[in-house]
Structures are given as C-alpha cells and as structure tokens.
Amino acid sequence: MKISILDDYQDAVRRLDCFNLMDGHVVKIFNNTARGVGQLAVRLAPFDALVLIRERTSLNRALLNKLPSLKLISQTGKVSGHIDVAAATANGVAITEGIGDPTAPAELTWALIMAAARRLPQYMQNLKDGLWQTASLQPARNGLGVALKGRTLGIWGYGKIGRLIAGYGRAFGMDVMVWGRAGSLAAAQKDGCRVAATRNEFFEGADVLSLHLRLLDATIGIVTAEDLMRMKPSAILVNTSRAELIAAGALQQALQAGRPGYAALDVFDSEPLAAGDPLLRMENVLATPHLGYVEQDSYEKYFRIAFQNVLDFAAGRPQNLLNP
C-alpha cells in the first residue's frame, strides 16, 4: 500500500521502534501541515491509506470526495470530530481507531499547573536576562508564586484524565472540587471529591481550574465569558483538552480584565499557532505547543496500533473499524 503519515512536526515517527511494521509498504511522511481542501487534495491524492496524528488534519466531505484512491484512514487514538465519518463511509473509505492513554496529558497538565503557580517560565526567562528573582518588569505582576497545598483545584470533567488530576491534587494537599454531568459528579463523590453545589460556585471557588471535557457539539463554547469573569484575580485556568471548549474570544478578553489572573494552555483555536497570536504576547499566559500526548511512550502505543490496523486491513482482515 501507499501510505501517508500526516503532520509529523518533529519527524519523530520514523525513529519509533514500531515504525519497522511499515517495512514493505511505500510510506511518505509529511512534517508540515497543509491548509485548504485544494492543497490537501493534491498532496493526498496518490495514497491508499492515511495515518493521522490525532486531530492535526481535518478530513471533511469536500476533501474526501477528491480522494478516489483512498481506502483507509488509520487514526492514532480515537476519532474526535475531525473526520466526516458519513462522507468517508459513502466514499468506501474504512476508518480504524486505536486507543488513548491518559498518562502523558495528565502529567503535562500537572506540570503546567505547578509551573503557572510558581511563575517558573517568567523567572527562568528573566534569569537569562540577568534579573534575579524577577517574575515581571511590571511591578503589579512581579508578585510571588504560590504553593498548591490548601488551595482549591476545580476539575470540569471527571473522565480518565480528570481522575488522575484529582489524585495529583489530593497528593499535593489540595481541596478537589468537581463539576460536570451527573454521572461524573457521582463518580467524583464516590472517590471522595467535593462536588460544587452550582456552576457559579465552581468558577468562583477554584484557585486552579482545569478543563477535561471531550469536544462535542454540546461542549463547544461551554465555558462562557461570564464564567471566566467569576474567577478570582489570583486564579489559574488550565486547558489541555480543546480550545473550542471556551467561547470564541472570551479567554483573551477575560485575561485582559484580570479574571482569571493567569492561564496555562496547551491547545489553541488554530494549530500550529501563529507566532503573532495575541495570547503569546501576554505575560499572564503560559503556552505550550499541544504537547499533551506528544511523548515517547504515547507515540509508541498510538502508532503501533495504527500501523497494525494498516497491516490487518492490507491483509484483508480489518480490525478496530469505526465504520464497518
């Protein structure tokens, strides 16, 4: 089969132990992202199979209609709205899925929480510029970092990642408060977490508020500007899930108003994020380039399954089909 691996920004896939599974097939790896249906159609037209790295490229109906040679989309992890499944099925394109692992994104979330609480990026950058114990040149922002013990950790979404974050919070002596659907709240209570009485209490009471929701039609823009403005000026908003969970434009506006006072972000409305994006120019934003699942063990797990799905499909015994 002629196989394309899309959006391998770091050219990491060919160095994975599992890449040898692709021996005997023609594999083309793209290290940059193409934009627009026309450009993508030209790039992807020759291939029988595409291996996607999570949601980095969207495959909509207009694009799928222009790929008559395509037979298989092998997804690393789970499909999450970036593939038009109905259009793929109508075009005779099989979609296979893998599995996810919450470990790497949960650990990155906690790293961001700790770095944001202690203002580590600012201190580190200013130290390189010869400034000792200086978080900001602006007196109003040159305050002390804070410890996590005794503070309230708000978690919206008590799935696999949310549960891990709750455990980390308890280990650091935090008061863990959860918000979400009824099933999530029941599970959180069973695990000994505190459930917020109301949505307003959740946003008003959190010192650190971390989002762990799946992106669905019902969750797009679920965090509103009004929610954010209820947060403490000292609070930290953490989003390693999906940028679209927050209403368009609301986060920048809220940060400029000082509620919350800080944000730690791993996800953005447009990725890769443009160097001139306003969020990158804000001192009260810690930003990382969507690294949640970008980790050695995760890549080995994701791609080993994705490659095996390609091999099984080529051998006529497809496994893990989303659209059988």
Describe the protein's architecture and organization.
This protein has 324 residues and is an alpha/beta fold. Helix content is 31%, strand content 14%. The strands form two sheets. The chain has a seven-stranded parallel beta sheet, with helices on both faces. The protein has a five-stranded parallel beta sheet with strand order 2-1-3-4-5. Helix 4 crosses helix 6 (160-171).
Say what oligomer this is: single chain
What is the β-strand count? 12
N-to-C series of helices and strands: EEHEHEHEHHEHEHEHEHEHEEH
What is the helix content?
A: 25-40%
Low-pLDDT residue spans: none
Provide the gyration radius in Å. Answer: 21 Å
Residue-averaged pLDDT: 96
Coarse structural class: alpha/beta
Shape: globular
How is the largest sheet built, in terms of strand order? 8-7-6-9-10-11-12
Briefly say what this structure is.
This protein is α/β, with parallel strands linked by helices and 324 residues long.
Reconstruct the topology from this structure.
Layout: E1 2-5, E2 26-29, H1 37-44, E3 49-52, H2 61-64, E4 72-75, H3 85-90, E5 94-96, H4 103-117, H5 120-128, E6 152-156, H6 160-171, E7 175-179, H7 182-190, E8 194-195, H8 199-205, E9 208-211, H9 225-229, E10 236-239, H10 250-257, E11 262-265, E12 285-287, H11 296-314
Parallel strand pairs: 1-2, 1-3, 3-4, 4-5, 6-7, 6-9, 7-8, 9-10, 10-11, 11-12
